[in-house]
Hints:
This protein is mainly beta. Helices cover about 10% and strands about 50% of the residues. The chain has one helix at about 15-20; strands spanning about 5-10, 25-30, 30-35, 35-40, 45-50, 55-60, 65, 70-75. Strands 3-2-1-6-5 form a five-stranded antiparallel beta sheet, with no helix packed on it. A three-stranded mixed beta sheet has the order 4-8-7, with no helix packed on it. A hairpin with a 6-residue loop joins strand 5 (about 45-50) and strand 6. It is globular, with a radius of gyration of 13 Å.
Amino acid sequence: MKRAYRFWVHYNxxxxxxxxxxxxxxHWRNECLTCNALQIMTPTEMHVRxxxxxxxxxxxxxxxxxxxxxxxxxxxxxxPRAVSEPALGS
Length: 90
């Protein structure tokens, strides 16, 4: 069975202003991957942080692959057993 690793995604405002294209950043397995399109094939949740970026989307992924300027995030179709379902507002 594959192991799922935590990933998180946020809007990258400095890169967007520099390139004049909407840019997202995916953080996965100690890598910071930028892209102009994103396809997430696993459940995600919103998370509010105390530092920038303030709001991120996060989930669990088996693999993150690049297809041209698009990143495809593939993961479990449900939350891994070790992680309980996130409560609303937490």
